[in-house]
Give the backbone structure.
Amino acid sequence: MQNAPLNHKGRFGPFGGQYVPETLISALNLLEEAFDEAMADEDFKNQLHSELTHYSGRPTPLTFAENTTNHFGGAQIYLKREDLNHTGTHKINNAIGQILLAKRMGKTNVVAETGTGQHGVAVAAACARYGLKCKIFIGEKDIERHPFNVLRMKLLAAEIIPVNSGRQTLKDAMNEAFRYWSGKIVDTFYCISTALGAHPIPSIVREFQTVIGVETKQQHFLAEWRMPTKIIACVGGGSNALGIFYPFLDEPVSLIGVEAGGYGIETGKHAASITTGSIGVLHGAMTYLNQDCTGQITPTYSFSSEFDYPAVGPEHAYLAQSGRVTYQTITDQEALQALSFIAKQEGILPAIESAHALAQAFKEASKMALDETIVVCLSGRGDNDIRLNWFRRE
Ligand SMILES: *Cc1c(COP(=O)(O)O)cnc(C)c1O
């Protein structure tokens, strides 16, 4: 592909790489080999496709948001409905792929980290279905924020490991899961939630999420007989965005990633690692992250636990640096307004993360022509995770 990022030994331009202790390199090499073999094996690909179809419910629809389109009076707005997946987000695409891979590698145990619990629920479900034992690391603060998802994971037979180090959020859960896995690499598979970490993990996650973009391309073509004008997706670690962007990288389509602006960039309380970060290393990869001048991670803020993380996947760092993808920020309040708006207009309750992408689409739609289109990646559903205190803030 002409515009495809350089993927030489896990590098995306200067980003990515394998910044891990030497003892883990052989495990990463084995993972890479197993993944390459699996993706060249028709039986594995058929099994993956069959599970995505009959277990998760793919393909997910591309819904025309007619009332919203009429309200803004500009571009035609379509929603790629990852909220309609089994367990309620795009996370299941990656979980099914990685847990099938774990099983193929002969692993018996799986560890994963989670923020809101969306990834934890997806991994727990896949482990139950494919017969692997599952431990989910989650920050104490996130356990408090998402009791319902913790219950879902327990019902799906996962063991919950509360993490009380650091700020007790996603980064800390990832540290602990990674530390635990480092000592158990022989029988344990680490199923990361997003396109972060050391090579080959970001590429594996992107590959399993690319189904979103492949379907979108076909569905948009059937609806409009052309390419979308813009595609907008929210970016935490960056997996739903990479999944929908990837098949369009070489097409004349404008791609926009939306980061969590929290209380506003000017307040310093946000989680916008591309917009405000600098180049550094976290969790095995060189990427953009929020750090102080000594390289220590600075605190992030977003009212979404999934966005409350100080870095972004290395492929996004490359796509930002090369200018192929543009990145914007949306504040908590703008995301909440977009959530309420789409609920009233279309009868859909999106996840608060997805509402960041919607808010950006609403800013752009009215400036565009009637014969242009925007596809928004609706990464997940919100009806099991709406929190009262969001609406109590001034
Ligand atoms: C986890 C999550 C995200 C953020 O993760 P990405 O890897 O950036 O996609 C976004 N939306 C929902 C609904 C999520 O659960």
Summary: Residues 12-52+91-206 form a domain with the Rossmann fold fold (CATH 3.40.50.1100).
